[in-house]
Amino acid sequence: MKSFFINDLLPEGFKVLLPEQAHKEENISRSILDLFFQNGYQLVKTPMIEYEDNISQNTLKSLHNQSFLLMEPETKKILVLRSDITAQVAKLASTKLKHYPRPIRFAYSGEVIRNSKNNYKSERQFKQIGVELIGGPQDASMVEILNLAISSLSKINIKNITIDFSLPSIFRLIDKNLKLKSNKNIKNALENKDPGVIQSKKYDYINGLILMAGTVEEAYKIYKKFKFPNKINLLLDNFFNLISVIKKKNKNLSITVDMTEGNSFLEYYNFGFKIYNKENAKGIAVGGDYKSNNNEIGLGMTFLVSQLLASTNFKKKEKAYVPFNTDLSKIKLKKSLIIIKELYSKKNKLTEAKKQKCDFILNKNGKLEKIN
């Protein structure tokens, strides 16, 4: 018989999850989604493939260039494999669900595929679980999203985290007003985060922004020492007010900032953030605010599930081996046990139980015997 499994090599960035890892991923997903549902977030499912749509690319635009493109044979139209679910949910809110009363809360879970390696790991296919809060007041929405993120991570025993903020709107304002392509001096200062480059008093506030990198407490001290243009000052003032609200509920939460970090957050509107597990320095979530096509403000947060796998330990459930033809309807076993039923009549119980890595064998009297 010809073998169909000649080559099991996968394209770079794709992988198979074997049972232990797949089970762990599913446990994490269910735990997080359950918390989302308890907080009023409704599950939506979006398609893996869509037609290319030039009209709705202004939401999280930087992700569009990371999509795999296909062609539909019949129509010759370009198809896009989704590279992010947030943009799809934002589009859904402004089209099919535009009649829903605001604010609306959505949860999602699914695979995405990107044609460039992910910033956190060399993956092209990975699972996202996230929430989007659309049409609510910005500050209150951001606080809700962050509190939900902290609670979700705490539920799966990830408590030692840092939230790293940036204000991409400031970077865009500087770029618009100072034309960074032609203003090499300021561009170099921002890219290298070097406040010593700028000597002109006129642009001293740029030095202040560069120095605002580190803990939010240190950044606030720097903020009070410099005079900023009105628009930038308003953004900074709103940001620090937002942080004070977050800190009231989470006094020991570690928050860092980098005010001049713009490139990795350009898809967001005012605030972007990443959440890191301090114990292994892995980026486990990203989020921020954005404007949809109908100018609605949305806030979202996405967990990078592959990174959660490396940050989470689950207690393995115990297994009980049940011999052939045992009637389980008359026996009460703990619901937490995993039941492994024998399918052959003449197998050695102990040998087979050990092969299956079971912790117990069910004896003739319906009692569990510990396997040594």
Description:
With 372 residues, the chain is an alpha+beta fold. The protein has 3 domains: 13-159 and 284-296, BirA Bifunctional Protein, domain 2, CATH 3.30.930.10; 161-278, BirA Bifunctional Protein, domain 2 (2-Layer Sandwich); 319-370, no CATH class. The chain has 10 helices and 16 strands. It has helices at residues 19-38, 86-94, 138-155, 168-178, 184-192, 204-211, 216-225, 230-249, 305-309, 349-355, and strands at residues 42-43, 49-51, 69-71, 78-81, 104-113, 125-134, 161-166, 213-215, 254-258, 272-277, 282-291, 297-304, 319-322, 338-341, 360-362, 368-370. The strands form 3 sheets. Strands 1-5-6-12-11-10-7-9-8 form a 9-stranded mixed sheet, with helices on both faces. A 4-stranded mixed sheet has the order 14-13-15-16, covered by helices on one side. α1 crosses α3 (138-155). The longest helix is centred in the N-terminal third of the chain and has 20 residues, at 19-38. The chain is elongated, with a radius of gyration of 26 Å. The model is unreliable at 55-60 (pLDDT under 50).
